[in-house]
Structure formats: C-alpha cells, structure tokens
Design a protein that fits this description.
By secondary structure, the protein is of the alpha+beta class. The protein has two domains: about 230 residues, no CATH class; about 40 residues, no CATH class. The strands form four sheets. It has a three-stranded antiparallel β-sheet with strand order 2-1-4. It has a three-stranded antiparallel β-sheet with strand order 7-8-9, with no helix packed on it. Strands 3-10 form a two-stranded antiparallel ribbon.
C-alpha cells in the first residue's frame, strides 16, 4: 500500500507544471495600496488576474534614442538597444511553440566578471526587461504570493491577520502557480516598519531549495552589476504567448481628457524633434516629410 501511494505521489509530482508568469495592469483595485506593497516607486502597474492585464493593440512599436542618450552612450548604446529589440523580434508565431515551451531556457542570465568588478549594468539587458514589462508582464516571483488584506496592521510592531492571494499563473494550464522557471517558492510576511503614515508589509518569496536559480525571468527586475541576458526565458515566452493568443482582448475605460491621435503615416524615427515631426506625419507621406525636414532619415 505504501509503494502504491508513493508511485501516485511521484506521478503527480512529475505531471505538475513548474512555471509561471504574472500579468501587469493598471492600479485600479481598491486593495492595491502602498501599505501592502502595491504602487511602490518605480511600479508602472499592478499584478492582475487572468483577462485583466495590459495588451498592446498595435502591430508595430517604434523606438528612438534622444540626444542625451546618444551623447552619453554613443553608437555602442544604439547597438545595445537594437540587440534588445532584436531578441523581442526573434519571437516567431508563439502558438507554434511546444506546449511546455522546451525550446526556451529556464535561465538566460550570464555574468561578466570584469563588468561586475567595475559596477556596470548591461544596457541591452535593462532594455529587454523594460520591453517585457511594457508588453504587459509583471514580476512573476514578486507576485507568486501577494497580500490581499492586512488587518489591522496599523502600528509597528504588528500583530495582524493577512489574506494572501496568487497572481502568478502557469503558462500551460493557466492555473495559479508557485513556480517560476522551475524554482518553487514559499513566502513569509515581512513588516518593514516604515515611518508613518505608511507602514509597508509584503509577502516575501523564498526558494524552497536555496540552491535553485532565483530571479530567473527577464520580467523580474533581477539584473545586477555584471549580469546580462542572452534571451528570454521559458516563463517570459509563456506569458507573452498568453497575452498574444488569438482574440485575446482587454477592455479598459478611456481616462478623462484623453486625446485620440491617428498616426497611420507616422515613420520610424531615428533622431529628430518629435513635436512638429509627429504632427506632420499625420498628413504627409515619407517623401513629403523628408522635404519638410531636410536630413531626416526614414528606414
């Protein structure tokens, strides 16, 4: 009987998926407040349930480097940005990949020890992280476990009750997941005892296996001095596949005082003052724009 149940347990473990992605969306739910670690400095959104995230509606995304960037980083900086976009553009039809996405690595980070010693961050890798974020993926490890309610939690030290939810989803089953790229996470509640009026608490993820890879997804802000990404990871692609599925639509109310600008003739910009050029691009074809702006480069 013991052997029988042991076989069942092994089969269950073998069939359990070990991956996860998190969706990013607007901070529009009442519980998503700073005291329980939402909408913190640097956040551009909050984790969402399935069907509630951001999704781009345009086929093409244009990018440019301004004068400050070019003066500081020069042509090497432009090459680094182009390499980050090339990784995103290398994605083919995401529905053609295998169901468990074995084509993609569980971790794509490498270390440059000289850059680490010099305290340097990789421009390409930072750009790739922000691109994935802009595509609608939140930090999967950060939101594997997250606080939904804290009661009362008004003073520190705190003795409180917590309601914990999951906002990390398996890319194959779309069920809530406690894994990110094969690493299993539990959590503990940390009360930071920050000065009033905001006393911040968080459900801090901890690896079950301390030797397992941590902060593996590009969507996770895990880049550090000397680290660089060679590609997206399995869970990054799984999240994008969910986002880009056929007929996946997210509907959101238009904020007050919004302005609709139709830019069908807008060209790819390399360097220019965007103000007048953008307005001219609404009604002029590329040839007319080059006549209006001598020296303009259109690719």
């Amino acid at each position: 009987m013991k052997r029988f149940w042991l076989v069942l347990a092994v089969l269950f473990a073998a069939g359990q998926s070990m991956f996860g992605f998190a969706l990013l969306g607007p901070v529009n739910e009442a519980y998503q407040v700073q005291p329980i670690s939402y909408n913190l400095p640097g956040d551009i959104g909050a984790p969402k349930n399935l069907g509630e995230g951001y999704r781009w509606n345009t086929r093409n995304v244009y990018y440019a480097m301004d004068a400050n960037f070019l003066d500081y980083f020069g042509s090497n900086g432009v090459v680094a940005i182009d390499k980050a976009f090339a990784i995103m553009n290398s994605l083919s039809n995401v529905s053609s990949y295998s169901s468990n996405l074995t084509e993609w690595p569980l971790s794509s980070s490498r270390i440059n020890h000289r850059a680490e010693a010099l305290g340097l961050l990789d421009v390409k890798s930072l750009t790739l992280h922000f691109l994935v974020e802009q595509m609608g993926l939140a930090e999967p490890q950060r939101y594997t476990w997250t606080i939904r309610e804290r009661d009362p939690g008004l003073a520190c030290p705190v003795t409180a009750l917590y309601l914990i939810i999951q906002r990390n989803f398996d890319p194959v089953t779309t069920h809530p997941s406690t894994y990110v790229n094969g690493t299993l996470y539990t959590y503990f509640i940390r009360e930071f005892c920050t000065p009033p009026p905001v006393n911040i608490a968080d459900a801090v993820e901890v690896q079950i296996d301390p030797t397992a890879t941590d902060l593996s997804a590009v969507a996770e802000l895990g880049i550090a001095n000397g680290l660089f990404y060679t590609s997206l990871t399995r869970d990054d692609v799984g999240g994008l596949r969910y986002q880009w599925a056929t007929n996946r639509m997210y509907v959101e109310s238009v904020p007050p005082a919004s302005l609709l600008v139709v830019s069908n003739n807008f060209p790819i910009i390399i360097t220019s003052n965007l103000n007048g050029l953008f307005q001219a691009g609404l009604t002029n074809n590329p040839a007319a724009l080059q006549a209006l702006f001598p020296g303009l480069i259109i690719r």
